[in-house]
Amino acid sequence: MLNLAAKALRSGTIVAAVSEVSKSYPGIGGLISSLPLVSVLGLMWLWRDTGDAQRMATGTLVSSYPDVIDLIGTKEVLYRTREMGWGTDTHLYTSQATLVAEFPGRLAEAPRVLKRSRGNGGIGAWKVELATGADVLVQEARDRSQRIMPLATFMAERAVDLAAGGTLVDQPF
Prior knowledge:
- By secondary structure, the chain is α+β, with helices and mostly antiparallel strands.
- 50% of the residues lie in helices and 17% in strands.
- It contains 9 helices and 6 strands, in the order H-H-H-H-H-H-E-H-E-E-E-E-H-H-E.
- Helix 1 runs antiparallel to helix 2 and helix 7 (96-109) crosses helix 8 (151-157).
- The N and C termini lie far apart (51 Å).
């Protein structure tokens, strides 16, 4: 029980420290607070208690909650910084009409990667490349599963991703 109390005290101290940093340095505080704090603390305590790296690596995903990723524009920053030194041929789709009008032409040039604005761990990310005729080969980033389907069907499936203000980021593979 004492060990649990010590963990709670240390975890509370970390949260308080982030709060104090945020008062003086809002940007740094915002960055720190966007970290998946529960995951980080959980991993920290698991390492301290077990020292077992294998146990930590098995099934542990450290990532922000999908709504946070969407809220702070984690994926859209790829589009906004496309003209900087690390940028690439990146496009942002904010509507189904724009996706249908522009994506096929880009896909004709080379395989593309589409990423939903809301998602983590490979959820909502697809590699898309031309197959035969009007078909495309779609690979899910999360589990690497593949399926061949008409491009029009794949784009129609993305309507739900663009609904209610969602976006899709498009980059070359």
